[in-house]
Amino acid sequence: MNQYFNKLANRYMRERCRFVYKLTCKLTYSYIGILLLLLVGCNDFGDINTDPNNPSQPDTRSLYVYAARRSVQYFYMQGIYDPWSAVYSGYIAEKTNKQYSGLTPSSFYIGDYYVYALKNLNKIIELNTNEKTSSQTYVTAFGDNNNQIAVARTLKAYIYMHLTDALGMIPYFESIQGNEENFKPKFDDQQSIYTDLNKELEEAYSQFDESKSLDSGYEIFYNGDISKWKKLNASVRMQLAIKLFKCDENTGKIRFKKAFEDGFIRSNEDIFQFKYIKDAANRNPLYLPIVISSGWDYYPSATFIETLQAYNDPRITIYATPNKYGTFCGMPTGLTPTEAARLNPDTISSFHPNYYQQDSPAKLITPSSMLFTAAEAAERGWIDASAENLYYEAISASFNQYGISSELSVYLTQPQVHYKTSGTVSERIVQIATQKWLTGFMQDGFESWSDWRRLGIPQLTTGSNSLITKIPRRRVYHTDDYNANLQNYKASVSIQGPDALDTRVWWDRE
């Protein structure tokens, strides 16, 4: 596997100039001005009629691995130096910049998701659908045609869900979906996108064939196990559906019930994760800044650490390490530069080393997170299941995941943890949401942020010295994403509301 990744990286480096040239001609999402700048210094284009990014015999295995590496892993920490989704979710705080700049790195650049991940996944679908290519070795080497299509459709939906949840209206139907000559795709409303994502996922689920597999050497999430892909597919549908409880409850209930019954990620053996390896080009994003550069810019937040302490939660020793005085102390938010500078690894708890080893995996969807989602749905009357049983199963799955199941029984006997069967539905949902938040540390920050926006749990503040007073409800569009498409950008703003941090996406209701 290491050799494959190295070859892939070298190939992309060698072909960069040719790739950029062709890309400027064919990009679905228009970034022409920026990409032309990258051409400076490229003296030899060779045969410009040959498209190295769209070769005559594109290997779907390569398309798939590159799409995975360039997209899904970033939902874990959203890049190395600006893991904003984990900050917005209340899990981590930064020692320097965000403490006094008011969480202001506000725009979200989504161009790469379209250019690399979504384009590649769409190409996989095209190659496996076209009668002229579907039987070619460079396609079939990856595995069954229908399974390739279903996997690509599932990953596309997962990516699009995150993009629209962060921004609201985004290019969808006229983007990479099939019209590659449209440089100015319209921005679609989130309700329409959600409807189509659910349709795509349900159709993909029906396409999966468990009697066949994909090449385990290249299918880097589940080693080609289609039964696990079906559970991921259903889990993403559950994530989409639960967000509809304020804006379209009946539709959410119908979609959730079907996904729940199809079978979701319920075992730790089925965790959806990106598996980093001990290779410089494919290492965990925290390894370089923490281990190589010794740069402790982010720490577990004070809010998170103090909540764990209030619940006597033994997972605190799994999530973080004590300071040199043997105590756990999180990083506060909203400090002045002078105040923040006084805090260092001697006084503040750091991430547990398990999170920043070179091959530490990026866990994105765990059974505990999905079981809590199911418990919430049960409390809302969406499914015929015991919310209490799902709640306890979720906590148990989390403790088992971290190898501390021996401490589970004591944890569950605490009054603040024991399920409040005598309380109101609202009180029980708060309890579910709180435990889900305690479970979700260093997982999919986008989804945790969505949970906070939906439920307001936990109560988060930006701190007294931040330049903004509230946690953002959305990101704003990046200038590189709309400069060449201003007419459609302005149309989306007129429909959705100001391109601002406090403008709510469609499902985020008061």
Describe the structure.
By secondary structure, this protein is mainly α. The protein has helices spanning 2-14, 16-26, 32-38, 60-69, 74-77, 84-88, 97-101, 111-129, 137-140, 145-167, 190-207, 226-242, 249-262, 287-292, 302-310, 316-319, 337-341, 367-379, 387-401, 408-412, 425-439, 445-455, 479-482, 486-496, and strands spanning 92-94, 107-108, 170-171, 187-188, 272-274, 298-300, 320-321, 350-351, 362-365, 476-477. The strands form five sheets. It has a two-stranded antiparallel ribbon with strand order 1-6. The protein has a two-stranded parallel ribbon with strand order 2-10. It has a two-stranded antiparallel sheet with strand order 3-4. Helix 4 (60-69) runs antiparallel to helix 8 (111-129), helix 12 packs antiparallel against helix 13 and helix 18 packs antiparallel against helix 19. Residues 1-50 have low confidence and may be disordered.
List the helices and strands and how they pair.
Blueprint: H1 2-14, H2 16-26, H3 32-38, H4 60-69, H5 74-77, H6 84-88, E1 92-94, H7 97-101, E2 107-108, H8 111-129, H9 137-140, H10 145-167, E3 170-171, E4 187-188, H11 190-207, H12 226-242, H13 249-262, E5 272-274, H14 287-292, E6 298-300, H15 302-310, H16 316-319, E7 320-321, H17 337-341, E8 350-351, E9 362-365, H18 367-379, H19 387-401, H20 408-412, H21 425-439, H22 445-455, E10 476-477, H23 479-482, H24 486-496
Parallel strand pairs: 2-10
Antiparallel strand pairs: 1-6, 3-4, 5-9, 7-8
Helix pairs in contact: 2-3, 4-8, 8-10, 10-11, 10-12, 11-12, 12-13, 12-18, 18-19, 18-21, 19-21
